[in-house]
Amino acid sequence: MFESAELGHRLSKAEYETIEPKLRTDLLDVQFDLFEHKDFAVVILINGIDGAGRGETVNLLNEWMDPRHIEVHAFDRPTGEEGERPPMWRFWRALPPKGKIGVLFGNWYVDPIGERAGGRLKKAPLDQRLSELNRFEAMLAAEGVLLVKFWFHLSRAGQKKRLKALESNPDTRWRVRQADWDFYEQYDRYREVAEHVLRRTSTGVAPWVIVDGTDPQYRAVQVGRNLLERLQRRIEQVRKGFRARQTAAPLVAAPDERNLLNALVLRQPMDKKTYERQLEKLQGRLALALRSEAFARRSLVLVFEGMDAAGKGGAIRRITEALDARQYQVFPIAAPTDEEAARPYLWRFWRRLPRRGKTAIFDRSWYGRVLVERVEGFCSEADWMRAYAEINDFEDQLVSAGAVVVKFWLSVSQDEQLARFKARESEAFKRYKITPDDWRNREKWPQYEPAVCDMIDRTSTSNALWTLVEADNKYFARVKILRTLVDKLEAVLQQ
């Protein structure tokens, strides 16, 4: 895999000076086109052998292009804030908006390669992680991100020569650390692991470009030309309206028309006295669980979905009554802002994830893609069909990082919804709760029902189960939600 990059490619000074002016002009032109039209974002991954010129090349790109529209992120060991969230959290936060270029040092490949080369990660877990990264990068590509991956390579002899040259110059001696020589001693093992990783993760949507780092002039031209070609090709595709071919499996309704929602008995008995008695007990248990030492090592993510007027807000308030106001945050999710729309769909949810010991409550959530966006036609069928797997991956990462994920669908009958709509219109302090959109959404009940059933079938997993709540009786619904939440929390915290 690295044979071509070990040939010792070189460009003479004269050849470089002939190529450079046009190359940097073309790169600047294509960057301005990208920034002006904001059709897509660009993410450049910088990886490779120590001493192969990664930093010098990025500095050169900043010199050749407009650095105001290039965001460079260098990741070292996770900070305290980063370590309290899933590993991918810090990379999601660094994704650039459409029209800009993000350069990521120390990205999501560093830990898998380093841990495997150091003997801390076996091959099977490594391959599992690489499969997850392939799915992540496929998702970025499907969201319109142009992913450019550079691996800067040196042979073992080339790396030694490079380190010796840096050490011999008083002006560059500081750049060589003992860690660099330690890495040199592990070169063969690192090269073996890197070859495996690159082979497994060089895909059609995100191929690796292996850069010969021997000669700075050749290296600069190789990187510049590859980046230019990828940008020009993507801009041409966008102008022609080209989209990668996507297919979606057909969704077929059950022949007997029975489904998860119409099988529910929505009117469940519970009087006010019973409700108040159980509410107090359950809120007490919840307060104790969330103030326990065991919870300090975890986080809680609550998801509330349901038909309009199903009682999500009332259920959330009964939960927050038992919480310390400093320990939770409620996120009402509406249409994405311009900032959010300029990035991949899940970005706005990743950035809202809680730290350990904290709670995030989502009043509507990432399931909007497979509900409102599906029904209203805000995205293609292929987009919302791939979202099921992307959401499952997202929630798996939350749970793996120690989060407790609890999801509720509140189901209400059409007659009860109509009664609540009219009640809201008749009471001045509730009138703000009813909008023309609520009435319009009600007309699309037949489209929402199969969308909800598909959502539950495809995203109710052992890590993040859906709880269906019969919500015609608000007392019953609130108690069921609290009991489900408390039982789940107590079970997890006892593990």
Description of the structure:
The protein contains 20 helices and ten strands. The chain has 495 residues and is α/β, with parallel strands linked by helices. The protein folds into two domains: 236 residues, P-loop containing nucleotide triphosphate hydrolases (Rossmann fold); 222 residues, P-loop containing nucleotide triphosphate hydrolases (Rossmann fold, 3-Layer(aba) Sandwich), CATH 3.40.50.300. Helix 1 runs parallel beside helix 10 and helix 5 packs across helix 9. The mean pLDDT is 94.
Secondary structure: elements and pairs:
Layout: H1 13-37, E1 42-48, H2 54-64, E2 70-74, H3 80-83, H4 89-93, E3 101-105, H5 110-117, H6 123-142, E4 146-153, H7 156-168, H8 178-185, H9 187-201, E5 208-212, H10 216-239, H11 272-290, E6 299-306, H12 312-320, E7 328-332, H13 338-341, H14 347-350, E8 359-363, H15 372-376, H16 381-400, E9 403-411, H17 414-426, H18 436-442, H19 445-459, E10 466-470, H20 474-493
Offer a concise description of the structure:
The chain has helices at 13-37, 54-64, 80-83, 89-93, 110-117, 123-142, 156-168, 178-185, 187-201, 216-239, 272-290, 312-320, 338-341, 347-350, 372-376, 381-400, 414-426, 436-442, 445-459, 474-493; strands spanning 42-48, 70-74, 101-105, 146-153, 208-212, 299-306, 328-332, 359-363, 403-411, 466-470. It is an alpha/beta fold. It starts with 12 loop residues before the first helix and ends with a helix.
